[in-house]
């Protein structure tokens, strides 16, 4: 809490009539930041924004530039604070320009007409949001996305130090989302305080300097996107399973939802080891994660997609440096893991001199506990990059009685013990 | 394209269209007043039925035409302001129960006071009806448009039922009550015309002063707050002024329907929805509409109630509006 705070609230309560939506919110906002407010549906995000702009009555400390917001006159508030709603009624056919010009009412005298400077500012705001070509169109003829950008233009032209936006990208396509959010970043960079409510956590993580996660009318966490968006917190607040990763282009935190099947409680859990490589096992990990298995993975290079997937899903594996022979110690670990597994799934993957020892190690596994997943029923030869040894090793496992299946369903049936008789025929 | 030429062009475009249309309406209003004053059941021109001809025009027709003109302006301006405030192009003093309140007030005075203070009671009835509708609809702070329309319809039905009951027990004064229910300018005096003109100037000026704010308010209450507008002040200005306008109109002419609904629509079609243009244009267009309707009633339909003529025009127009809304929604 410094003197630089533009908005500061302490112990803020707000709601509609009897129903209290916000309970004891305390946070503050400095100039030049882009903050995202996130949280599940009904958590109070929009109410928080509307409490800031005074359209929802609130109790507790709420200051804007050091002054109690409730003491602002309507026009002072209009000059201090711009607001972009999610949507807005369009009962009358004003032109786009007329609507954007409304942002300048607060600065112009009641009876004087607006100045050329006001028109120029509005035109500029339309250009910044890519809606200049719509200036003379009736607002009733605009698409949802066009209308949303016009509403953003109107708030820009209001030239307020604080800009509040309620899901400003909810109606926008991919390109316009990026355009609008980059614009908001630039505005924050130029000293404005930009606060937006977001549903898309990845977009928020990508563009916001700071995220405030709200749940049930309270702030859960407040910090940088990487601090706020952890898999554990998402599970706790949203009740959703995600894996966190790194945005390949920006290095920012990135979330991916995980398909989670119901976990039968208390069932005897089978130890299953998935041996894979070159990305062949990642989607199998996701398929099996969340079912009643204790999963482990084989030897994986740390650059392998399978390694990233296993790490994200908290599946233990035996990591090795990329582009190297499997060290003897790792092979020893693998034999230990395989010996402890109730079932072993071999996900067919390309085999070169480097990882051939892992495939050969499977020769020591009881064939009745082994299933080979061969997507598309391809020939083992297509996985062989060591001149026939790998294909022969694959075929040897099947000939010894390992089951072979082309579908995930087949793998699951085997693991659940529904596999009738002994293994199917390999190609 | 650089900023400046566009800005000036945008500004010029609004001005170039608005000014001639308003001027044209003004000229049309003058012509309408003159022509309609000269029109009567006896034909066009100053009647040559003896020495009283000029008196008929100056003493009877002119006050009636002027009263119709100003009452038409009152109703149209009130309708325009209500439609913007409630963000609903269907809002209208007639639909919101005000007119039936006026008719009830008049009917009560006719039945129980033997016809004394009828205009005052009509005014009071209209005023009370508006208060009832707004206090019910505005219970939770912000006024919900749907609640408002439904409340208006309910109040309207209730008052009409009371009026019908009074008609049943009224005996000889039935005709007088019918007059207040249907509306007309049979007894319009120079005083009536003056009263309507004064109300129109005062309330019209108050509404014009908040016309710009009404533009923002017509996009939503919260939008207006966010654009820095004192919404409470605008709301009370509109409610107070339109009550004054409608109650005044009802006390002079009874409940004339649809002028307040149709006129703002026509004006917005011609000039767009900017209330700084719509409000002055409605004064002129509403006046013209009601003068023409009254002249039709007087000269061609053996002086039937003008409310019948406006309903003939207005009701199909209302249906067309609903139809068109259904299509664009």
What class would the helix/strand composition of chain A place it in? Answer: alpha/beta
Shape of chain B: globular
Biggest beta-sheet profile of chain A: 6 strands, mixed
List the quaternary state of the chains.
heterodimer
Measured distance between first and last alpha carbons of chain B? 35 Å
* Strand order, largest beta sheet of chain A: 6-7-8-3-9-10
Describe the strand arrangement of the main beta sheet of chain B, using strand numbers. 1-2
- Series of secondary-structure elements of chain B, N-terminal to C-terminal: HEEHHHHHHHHHHHH
Intertermini distance of chain A = 70 Å
Number of helices of chain B: 13
Reported for the largest beta sheet of chain B, the result is: 2 strands, antiparallel
Q: For the CA atoms, what is the radius of gyration of chain B?
A: 20 Å
Low-confidence segments of chain A, given as residue ranges, are 419-427
In round numbers, the mean pLDDT of chain B is 81
The proportion of residues forming helix of chain A, as a percent range, comes to 25-40%
Number of extended strands of chain B? 2
Low-confidence stretches of chain B: 1-13
The rounded Rg of chain A comes to 29 Å
Question: How would you describe what is shown here?
Answer:
The complex is a heterodimer of chains A (427) and B (329). Chain A is an alpha/beta fold. Chain A has a 6-stranded mixed beta sheet, with helices on both faces. A 5-stranded parallel beta sheet of chain A has the order 14-13-17-18-19, with helices on both faces. In chain A, α11 links the parallel β15 and β16 (318-320). The termini of chain A are far apart. Helix content of chain A is 32%, strand content 23%. In chain A, α4 (116-128) crosses α5 (144-157) and α10 packs parallel to α11. Chain B is an all-alpha fold and 329 residues long. Chain B has helices at 3-38, 53-85, 98-112, 118-137, 145-170, 174-182, 190-209, 211-217, 221-226, 231-253, 259-271, 275-300, 306-328; strands at 39-40, 43-44. Chain B has a two-stranded antiparallel ribbon. In chain B, α4 (118-137) runs antiparallel to α5 and α4 (118-137) packs antiparallel against α10 (231-253). The longest helix of chain B has 36 residues, at 3-38. The model of chain B is unreliable at 1-13 (pLDDT under 50). The interface between A and B is large, with 47 and 36 residues.
